Amino acid sequence: MYIRATGNISPQKTFGHQPWVDAPVAYTTNRLACIEPDYKEFIDPKQIRRMSRIIRMGVAAAMECLLEAGVKIPDAIVTGTAYGCLEDTNSFLSKMVEFNEELLTPTSFIQSTHNTIGAQIGLMLQCNNYNNAFVHRGFSFESALLDGILLLKEKEAANVLVGAIDEITNTSHTILNRLGLYKQGPVLSLDIYKTKTKGTIAGEGASFFLLANEPSATDYGRLKGLHTFYKPEGIAAIEKQVLSFLESQSTSMKDIDLIITGKNGDATSDETYRQLLQTVFTGKDSINYKNLCGEYPTASAFALWLAVNIVKTNKVPAVPEYTGSAENKIKRVLIYNNYLGIHHSLFLVAAC
Amino acid sequence: MNAPVYVAGTGIISAIGNNVAECLDALENGRAGMDQMHYFDSAHRQRLPVAEVKMKNEELAKLAGLPKPKSRTALLSLIAAKEALNNAGIENLTSLRTGFISANSVGGMDKTEKFFTQFLTDNNKGRLRDVINHECGSVTELVADALGIKDYITTISTACSSSANAIFFGARLIKNKMLDVVVAGGTDSLTKFTLNGFNTLMILDEKFCQPFDENRRGLNLGEGAGYIVLVSEKVAATLKKKASVVLSGYCNANDAYHQTASSPDGTGSFLAMTGALKKSGLQPADIDYINLHGTGTQNNDIAEGTAIKRLFDPKYPKMSSTKTFTGHTLGASGGIEAVFSVLALRHGVIYPNLRLQTPMKDLPFNVETKFTRNIEVKHVLSNSFGFGGNCTSLIFSKV
């Protein structure tokens, strides 16, 4: 299937289809916040005021994607989010505790449900079609994408809008910090792979894709395959999954021009990737992406966005670890990501 | 892609019973599960009845076979999912590709609420183990790990239609030959967050709810979990106890009208029911029973009723809302009602819509008020509609 259009709001200047990531935005904290666009072009100002930040980001990324695709009403809308609308949840929960279950208003409760963004997109488009929301931690985006792939395969839809949305809030950042997820002390986002310290950097994003059965002149690339696996037992099990995935796609490692890894700067987590780069991925050009967008459960959507942009433009962002040369055409990209070592995913992307 | 998907097992825990047999007995004898709050604690204790599972967390953990009580949502889920798997009696489960597709609306919120009371006084306070399973997906993983399922695991959350979506997503994974067996359904426990949310929307009934009654006042919240075990034709052929029910139709549509209210003519409901019928190749007249979404709110019942009128007039199937027994269990309701639908087909029974006094004036049909046994039920339509306009209908058929 084809990826016809994208819309991506991230901690990089990815929105508005600008020339991208030639000069990555660097951060000096362990919290990378999205660079938000002027929403007025995409959402009615009256509605913007009512929406919380994550809803605005999700809806705007979806609208940009549909505009680029030239699709008014998609045949299906599928979203993935691990945490859902955290700010709304936090707001309702805090007031409920503070006022002992009295004096509450419904707005933040209404917006706290996990399907709010998909529903808001459906509502704005007056789209009565299939609408679903997956909320499974580091598999949220992959599950949404699989649903989209199957809808196309089953001929239930000719095109599907698939997106991933997750936000960091002050509360979630505080709690996840306490759980030890992030680096402490001074941090340089672009240099996280140089450190050998514990923890990663927090990220967030809203990334949407328009998947279609038929090719069009403006396609970014083709999504050839997707595979997920849960809690593999050791590195050998991961290697086996990688190789059997490639085999199932009737391809092999020699046909892969670039690997995008989910390295996140955490010494323990990166060890898995380091080992794989010496075994199944050996000799392959590779780049990482979480120094650009941070770590979050649906970060693999940023990787997919990166992959389709790379195969479309044949340009790799200005990252130091890339050893390949621009003269080599990049036709096939393999993304390997894992979240907390629990949720592993593989995506195979090809140029059109 | 059109191979049938069989229902091999059912499992349930709700306010009317801790397993399928207890729930069926309560349905047969008209025992509703609503009451004053006994286990769940809220400032609205005196005013709002709820439909609780009649056990403490410690007792649930024991029943689930877990050493320590986790989120109540996970405990309910594990109990019902285990029953469903036992009921299916698949012998060589470990050699098959098995998935767990579960739904819930607020994950481990029951524990997060506890965490927040401490956390709000001081951000360094609150026990992290109370917030670590906040995510919807964490609840699913606690259960999947306890069941030993790892081939495919995911969680769906589309408010009150969540578990209906989980069921048919599971069926599609089998149809697409990705999995052989799927445990699919949903779970939700009562939480202050949800109770207060619905309270601000002013759609909670201070008495026991009366769905499809002219004088209905709102819904009663409930808790529970319901799962069915879906299997491929190949697996079905190996079962000792023959699977007699298939998931024959399904459809997900969106009302696209309002974040929390249904359109007056029930556009989304109509599209979901029509789509499910089309998928199953059945005509409206083939449906013997509709397990209504039937929450008891002014808005839902007239929207759903209007859509039914448009689709079924003049020949109506028997209909009832089993939420008159279980309360509205939100993310679990599609799973619980799928189990009731399968039981209606297996046992040839139809459930009453309790407490009906005055049928709705604007609708030309009546809902069932009595338990009916010994009748042939071939096709059952189960409706689940939710916030965000998410509408899903499933059709189960006897083979």
State the low-pLDDT regions of chain A, or none: none
The proportion of strand residues of chain A reads 15-25%
Oligomeric state of shown chains: heterodimer
Question: Which structural class is indicated by helix and strand composition of chain B?
Answer: alpha/beta
Helix content of chain B: 25-40%
Tell the overall outline of chain B: globular
Low-confidence stretches of chain B: none
Number of strands of chain B: 12
The shape of chain A is: globular
Q: Tally of extended strands of chain A?
A: 10
Q: Report strand % of chain B.
A: 15-25%
Query: What count of helical segments of chain A does DSSP give?
Result: 11
Which class best fits the helix and strand makeup of chain A? alpha/beta
The helix-strand sequence of chain B is: EHEEHHEHHEHEHEHEHEHEHHEE
Topology, element by element:
The complex is a heterodimer of chains A (352) and B (399).
Chain A: E1 2-9, H1 45-50, H2 53-69, E2 76-80, H3 86-98, H4 107-112, H5 116-125, E3 130-134, H6 140-153, E4 159-166, H7 170-178, E5 205-212, E6 221-230, H8 235-248, E7 258-261, H9 267-278, E8 286-288, H10 290-293, H11 300-313, E9 332-339, E10 343-350
Parallel strand pairs in A: 2-3, 2-4, 7-8, 7-9
Antiparallel strand pairs in A: 1-5, 1-6, 4-5, 6-10, 9-10
Helix pairs in contact in A: 2-5
Chain B: E1 6-14, H1 20-28, E2 34-35, E3 50-51, H2 57-64, H3 72-88, E4 98-103, H4 109-119, H5 136-147, E5 152-156, H6 162-175, E6 181-188, H7 192-200, E7 224-231, H8 233-236, E8 245-254, H9 267-280, E9 289-291, H10 298-312, E10 318-320, H11 323-326, H12 333-347, E11 379-385, E12 390-398
Parallel strand pairs in B: 4-5, 4-6, 9-10, 9-11
Antiparallel strand pairs in B: 1-7, 1-8, 2-3, 6-7, 8-12, 11-12
